[in-house]
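ok trying again, last paste got cut off:
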Amino acid sequence: MNTSSTKIAALFDLDGVLIDSETIYTEIWTRINEKFPTGVQDFPRRIKGTTLDNILDTYFPNPEIRPKVIEMLYDEEGKMKYRFCPGAEQFLITLREKNVAMALVTSSNGDKMSGLFRQLPHLKDFFDTIIVGEMVKHSKPDPEGYLLAAKRLGADPRNCAVFEDSLQGVKAGRAAGAYVIGDAGTLPAETLQPYSDIVVDSLEEIDIDNLIHSLSLR
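nice, full thing came through this time. structure:
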């Protein structure tokens, strides 16, 4: 159990860290980009970790195209089958058993989250607070979402661990002043390393007791 007087917390990104959906989203946004070309190289990776509003404002400003992109995205999301990344569910269970405060900080919007929670209703029970895309003005790599989560949990960001798999995400965690754990399941470790304190291939590699101790000393 967490017996330290310092309030520590674990702040999680969703896709690619807890939920194994990044391959599916890459395929979805590739199809969208093929139908509504942005001219942006490696478009699915470029937008990873950013909110839908940010994506639409930046890459689909045409008022005639925008609703078609939304319709296609929602149609594709409606067909998705969500599952946990390897080791993720047990990792959350163990953190809860050790009384570590937890937050979900995702760029996904409420509609997507509703669909996710219909398939995995117990997922939300792990978290003391959930930050979705509509709750922030500035998308990752801005630290707003992580700072808001830490504030809601009553924790200093320095005593929080941020778990991220995107470049925008690890930058956001670093900017928030948190201890950043890069998950190399989506991007190469060397891409995440400059903005991460450690990089792992999966949550299964992390020693939770050592992590709790390290966070309490920051």
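cool. The CA atoms of residues 87 and 203 lie 6 Å apart. The mean pLDDT is 93.
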